[in-house]
Design a protein that fits this description.
The protein is built from eleven helices and twelve strands. The relative contact order is 0.15. It is of the alpha/beta class and 312 residues long.
């Protein structure tokens, strides 16, 4: 049995989802030879620390009752540096302006050779190359499937399951909130979702992780859905189409824009679903559909990354 000592930094919806999934999957993990002990859980107010393993059920209960898990005033970076563990699960909120606490946490972890699994797009959107080089120099594992498709595997599908296939392009719907708005002909509000910013961040990560590029948010051509009217949606529908916010990335292009999609096309998913079509050299187009958000769904990608690192 291998014991993996880890911290959860960021205890909002996704961090709590990770705790729930670790509790739910404890017996399964043990059946494949892994015991996961969380030695610290931190949120913006402080942390709960126990080198023998914190009580995750208690952490969840206190977070819901008191709004914080903090028993001592200690930052994520301090947890990384002072509490012995090998894996940092980084689920702090995304900040695409500065990278936020997530960027500091990741760099601090790599500086002392810790592994990192994250759901946080911000640092990868801003500093992908620096993070990868720092991780490599330290011999650290760095995995981030949860940053792009929630529970829908795109990075691991492209890089591992389809190893040997040259991926020509990836296109799809990478924001469930935006898709829901377009499905429901709802009023739009200019947020990360409807302006296409969230989708653009995910394309940056795919461009770097799958296509080996070195790009940032500024390299993406972005048009959101704020100009799409209910009338335009109805007119498209009458002609057998739907309007979807489609992100597309290849070695030549990275752009996000509303596009007409035939109603019976694999990309014409409804509700909060995400979908990605991976166009490959040997296997043709492979399309995956799934929930792109949600605490448990996103935590499932984090769990998958954890198992991939430590199972062997």
């Amino acid at each position: 049995m291998k014991t993996v000592y880890c911290s959860i930094l960021g205890f909002g919806a996704i961090g709590q989802g990770v705790a729930e999934v670790l509790l739910m999957k404890k017996e399964y993990l043990e059946s494949i030879g892994l015991e996961v002990k969380v030695v610290a859980v931190a949120d913006s107010k402080g942390a709960t620390v126990n080198p023998e393993g914190v009580d995750l059920a208690d952490c969840l209960a206190r977070k819901r009752k008191d709004g914080t898990v903090a028993l001592e005033k200690i930052s994520g970076v301090e947890v990384i540096r002072s509490v012995p563990h090998e894996l940092v699960i980084e689920t702090t909120p995304t900040d695409i302006q500065t990278g936020g606490a997530g960027l500091q946490n990741m760099l601090a972890a790599f500086q002392i050779g810790k592994d990192v699994i994250t759901s946080n797009k911000g640092p990868l959107t801003l500093k992908y190359r620096e993070l990868m080089e720092t991780a490599k120099a330290a011999g650290s594992h760095f995995r981030f499937e949860a940053t792009v498709g929630g529970s829908m595997p795109i990075i691991n599908l492209s890089n591992e399951v389809l190893a040997g296939n040259k991926v020509k392009s990836i296109k799809g719907i990478l924001n469930g909130t935006c898709n829901y708005i377009l499905t429901r002909i709802a009023e739009t509000d200019p947020t990360y979702d409807v302006e296409g910013i969230d989708t653009a961040c995910k394309l940056v990560i795919l461009a770097n992780a799958v296509f080996g590029l070195d790009v940032t948010y500024d390299d993406v051509e972005v048009t959101g859905i704020t100009k799409v009217t209910p009338e335009a949606l109805e007119m498209a529908y009458e002609r057998g189409h739907v309007i979807k916010l489609i992100g597309e990335v290849s070695r030549e292009i990275i752009h996000v824009a509303p596009r007409l999609v035939p109603i019976n096309h694999p990309l014409a998913v409804g509700g909060t679903l995400n979908v990605a079509s991976v166009d490959t050299e040997l296997a043709g187009e492979i399309t995956v559909t799934g929930k792109g958000a949600g605490p448990i769904e996103t935590a499932s990608a984090i769990l998958s990354d954890l198992i991939t690192i430590y199972r062997n």
